[in-house]
Write a structure and sequence with these properties.
Helices cover 30% and strands 16% of the residues. By secondary structure, the chain is an alpha/beta fold. The chain has one domain (3-282): Thiamin diphosphate (ThDP)-binding fold, Pyr/PP domains (Rossmann fold), CATH 3.40.50.970. The N and C termini lie far apart (52 Å). Bound molecules: thiamine diphosphate. Thiamine diphosphate is lined by residues 47-50, 66, 90-93, 117, 119, 121-125, 130.
Length: 283
């Protein structure tokens, strides 16, 4: 399939040069590579610049409330686990207000690909600090410099039992396509944290800043089965690894859930289910 297959004629509201454009393009290319039909993909987003991504894709989509990408995506997956479910969130949405959902989706190993557009700032609300903003960063909310330490999403993922932990960069399109393909193919929860420069509000973490620091983990001898090696990689600060840090096989939540493990919920014949006792109980 071609990536044009997912094109929708909708005017973009992202700023010129925004790191969201390559993420959108990579997602389309990955869906095309995997020959996923438009009607079999669902892209769920939250609130933020990143949250607009379903508007620009010819798949099913749902833009929910702030921080609630994963509850909605989980609901979609458990209702019809034949679908390819992709969650897209900003760092504020995914690691701040929605952070608790992330931990539990990872430990449950729900089969969702979660792309976090990590621009290290609140983009849509025009530049307040997020949970991944660097220490001392001056912003509208921190005119004297950020006094909060940023969280480390990849080490949280490893500690929470995630089975696919990875990082991409908006400035490396082919690499990102490959990562999304692998994330979608992975059976279980896949976290793809993407360094996504915000050209309007993050003056520090620019394309050039990342270019000087990133390196491709898969071009080193890194062993993706080694949890301790992965943990060590998350602690690197001057050089920033991109690629797959960790990947293991574990049963997915939907493959274990008795009610749906043989057949997805939407395919089950529920015409003979008697809900009257339940309604009575709720009276
Ligand atoms: C419950 C709630 N709190 C706050 C807001 C205001 N708000 C809208 S977007 C946003 C942050 C966006 O930052 P991020 O999630 O990093 O996404 P980006 O815009 O950078 O892609 C906030 C705080 C909201 N819409 N809903």
């Amino acid at each position: 399939m071609k990536s044009e297959n997912y094109f929708i004629n909708h005017k973009s509201q992202w700023c010129p040069g925004c790191g969201n454009f390559p993420i959108l393009s990579a997602l389309k290319k990955a869906l095309a590579k995997l020959n996923i039909k438009n009607e079999n993909a669902v892209v769920v987003s939250g609130i933020g610049c990143s949250g607009k991504i379903p508007h620009y894709l010819k798949t099913y989509g749902f833009e929910g409330v702030h921080g609630r990408v994963l509850p909605v995506a989980t609901g979609v997956k458990l209702s019809n686990n034949d679908l390819t479910v992709i969650g897209c969130a900003g760092d504020g949405d995914g690691y701040g207000i929605g952070g608790n959902h992330l931990i539990h989706a990872m430990r449950r190993n729900i089969d969702i690909t979660y792309i976090v557009h990590n621009n290290q700032i609140y983009g849509l609300t025009t530049g307040q600090v997020s949970p991944t903003t660097s220490l001392n960063f001056k912003s509208k909310t921190t005119p004297f410099g950020n006094i909060e330490n940023p969280l480390n999403p990849l080490s949280i993922a490893l500690s929470s039992g995630a089975t696919f932990v990875s990082r991409g960069f908006s400035g490396r399109l082919d690499h990102l396509v490959n990562l999304i393909v692998k994330g979608i193919k992975h059976k279980g929860f896949s976290l793809i944290d993407v360094f996504q420069p915000c050209v309007s509000f993050n003056y520090l973490n620019t394309y050039d800043w990342f270019e000087k620091r990133i390196y491709d983990l898969q071009k080193t001898k890194h062993n993706t089965n080694d949890l301790f090696a992965a943990h060590k990689k998350t602690l690197e600060e001057n050089k920033l690894p991109i690629g797959i840090l960790y990947q293991i096989k574990k049963p997915t939540y939907d493959s274990l859930l008795p009610q749906i493990k043989k057949q997805s919920l939407v395919k089950q014949n529920i015409s003979k289910v008697n809900i009257n006792p339940l309604l009575k109980e709720l009276e």
